[in-house]
Description:
Elements: E1 3-7, H1 13-16, E2 32-36, H2 44-48, E3 61-67, H3 70-78, H4 83-104, E4 107-112, E5 115-120, E6 126-133, E7 139-148, H5 160-165, H6 167-185, E8 190-192, E9 198-200, H7 206-210, H8 226-236, H9 258-265, E10 271-272, H10 273-283, H11 290-300, E11 314-315, H12 317-320, H13 336-356
Antiparallel strand pairs: 1-3, 2-6, 3-7, 4-5, 6-7, 8-9, 10-11
Helix pairs in contact: 4-6, 6-10, 9-10, 10-11
Amino acid sequence: MIRVWSRRSNDVSYFTNDRALEIEGLREGEPGWWLRGAGDARDPRSVSEVLRTSERSSVLGYDIVVAAPRPTSILLAVDPEHGSGVVAAHRASVGAAIDYLEEHALVVRDRRGGEDRDRAGRWSRAVGFTHGVNRHGEPHLHDHVLVGALPDGSRSVLDSRGLFAHLVAADALYRSSLRHELSERTPWTAWRSFEGVEHVVGLDEGYRALWGGHHTDRGEKLRWRRRDAIERWDDDRVRFDSMGIIDPPTRHRTTLDEHGFAGALEGRNDVARRHVITAWSNAARFGQSPVAVTRAVDSLYPELAGARGVREPSISVREARMTARVRDRGARPLETPDLERWRQRSRDESRSRSERSR
């Protein structure tokens, strides 16, 4: 899950001082990279300028932490030859998640005439820092993305409710993108189970137990060198105990899991676009590019397109679940003529059921 921490200090030395040498040579360039704007990501003064706020707010900005699923991080240790592809897939997917948040979660409340209106915002600058281990030295690929509380050209800070409301959708989109990008950039294939567990085809589950990432103590913040990390991982693997490989589903990999999609919407009173994005991204078991996900959702649900913030328009669960009926098309956008024929078929079948019930 993507986590967000409020920043009330412009001290960014935690990020600029960590050279993230544990993945030196696996990433392109320095650990700091600009998603919006430009500057020297090694310079605290340049990075601290990202954190902008208004005179009335004590929150300068946010630290958005985007972490890869455990099996994907483990690939850094078990397959260093393709580690650069893993890191590149992660960074591309981080960019997609931030794009989504900027497009649909970044709003500024504007009260006029006694009514609240959501105005679209943009981040003028955003910088990420890519790290490859946790505090216990286990493989843990993640990014800290720093953004300001004050959108570009605005006098008011962003409505944090919108940011937090869209985190689940942004995380689902990130993971779908990561599964897709991993298969494009490396020999590995990632997939998501019906229960929501992320796997990598051919990766023994014993590695997940070996580097579980859960500890009673938080651990000390250390500066790992590449050599130290490799030695640590080699030492850890002495304790490796095989637990077997979980086989992926046999269905075609471009097929949307219609049961997973429909089940994700079950029990809701209404469905907003962010809920559909979450359900669709998770139902794409082997992943799908963010562009394809959003194109498909906006084609099938034009009434929800362009929604932003907390107060998104919504539809009924019955209307939202209609996507399950195009499961044979799989997780890919429909062409407009096909969509129109499908919609007409849906209306005809509904009318037939209504006539039979009379």
